[in-house]
Design goal:
- The chain has about 375 residues and is of the alpha+beta class.
- The chain has 15 helices and 14 strands.
- The strands form 5 sheets. A 5-stranded mixed β-sheet has the order 1-2-10-7-3. It has a 3-stranded antiparallel β-sheet with strand order 4-14-11.
- A hairpin with a 5-residue loop joins strand 1 and strand 2.
Length: about 375
């Protein structure tokens, strides 16, 4: 680190990749204008994410299951929720994801400009998640509108707007949950109904817990999958050799390639923590009660771990890849995201002759606190 640690930085309105690439060269830790300590390098992010005693995840005023829980409560909920993401649990849904992806790819106009984020990613995310959860198709337009407004509100930094958008989504969730509760034994036999009837520590889940879990599975994942698709499509449009590599790869290799693309351009920008005691990390003395940001996007581009920026080595970088986090709070939805993105790659390979960047149209980057792209104009061959 340099002698002086910046303490008044703001990423607002910036593409986080070049911004943190420049900062990380001189600093392991910086402070932003909100007073948060931002960890930029791989070693520091891994250390903090792995030390759940010092770096607590209980950072929000609102209930966040399981992300915002610590200790035994977190363990109990992860034991319950991880059961929904096993290979055996997800296997029956793979044909659904494959069909959704194939239908979307088949419906894309050939030779015309389409937006990989809105026309492919968002549509795929909504249809795949609704199919997985058993939500009615009639919610599709409402969810697509919510996704667009949620990104706009997040991008704006307007907390009142963000809170209103969050409440709108909770209302969507309640509109799905309440009829199932009222139907009792006649409720649809789907994943949402199973969750409503689940038990943790020998008791039924409360309504706020069910809503929080479904918010995590949908509100977070819908936008995330759409952004992932945008990143993957932008990369493949500019790297036809990597599209050819996917075409001759098995599923395990496809997953590693997609993860490497997402490491290079990680749309899951950061997670928050709060210190439970004074801590020293990256040369910085951090007090108790300090707000911390684990900057995954920056850590995943750390040259000391991955070599030159944008170097591409799916197998060599796999163990250090932090796209889905690390430690006991690693993203529980990773297996679901993996099979969904794999399904989309299969559909792209089977249903097209590839994709290319739209001539004369530059992709539009998202800005902090959102990662990835806002718009990726491509042409499907």
């Amino acid at each position: 680190m340099t002698d002086h640690m910046p303490d008044d930085l703001s990423a607002a309105g910036r593409d986080v990749r070049p911004f943190t690439d420049e900062l990380r060269a001189d600093h392991a830790v910086v402070r932003n204008i909100a007073g948060e300590w931002v960890l930029l390098r791989h070693a520091e992010v891994v250390a903090a994410a792995s030390d759940h005693e010092t770096f607590s995840s209980a950072v929000s005023r609102h209930l966040q299951v399981p992300n915002g829980l610590d200790g035994e409560s977190h363990t109990a909920f992860r034991e319950l929720l991880d059961g929904y993401f096993t290979d055996a649990e997800l296997a029956p849904y793979v044909p659904l994801f494959e069909q959704v992806a194939a239908d979307i790819v088949a419906g894309l106009p050939r030779g015309e400009v389409v937006d990989a984020v809105a026309d492919i990613g968002a549509l795929f995310a909504v249809r795949a998640q609704c199919g997985w959860l058993g939500w009615p198709a009639e919610l599709e337009d409402r969810l697509l509108e919510w996704m667009a407004e949620n990104h706009a509100a997040t991008r704006s930094g307007d907390r009142a707007w963000t809170a209103d958008v969050a409440e709108d989504f909770d209302e969507i969730i309640r509109s799905v949950v309440q009829p199932r509760r009222e139907a009792g034994a006649d409720a649809p036999d789907d994943l949402t109904t199973r969750l409503i009837g689940a038990r943790v520590d020998g008791r039924e889940l409360t309504e706020p817990e069910v809503v929080s879990i479904l918010r995590n599975w949908t509100g977070g994942d819908l936008g995330s999958i759409a952004l992932c698709v945008g990143v993957v499509m932008a990369h493949l449009a500019g790297s036809p050799d990597h599209l050819a590599l996917l075409a001759r790869s098995d599923d395990e290799q496809i997953d590693a390639i997609v993860d490497e693309i997402l490491r290079i351009d990680d749309p899951f920008v950061s997670n928050r923590r709060i210190t439970t005691c004074p801590a020293r990390i990256g040369g910085a003395e951090i007090p108790e009660g300090a707000r911390i940001k684990l900057h995954w996007t920056s850590a995943n581009r750390d040259e000391s771990v991955f070599g030159p920026l944008d170097s591409f080595d799916p197998q060599g970088h796999r163990e250090a890849n932090l796209v889905y986090g690390i430690g006991k709070h690693v993203c529980p939805g990773r297996p679901l995201a993996t099979v969904q993105l794999r399904a989309l790659v299969h559909a792209l390979l089977a249903g097209t002759d590839g994709v290319e960047a739209a001539p004369g149209e530059e992709p539009e980057r998202e800005v902090s606190p959102v990662g990835g792209y806002r718009r990726v104009p491509i042409i499907v061959r």
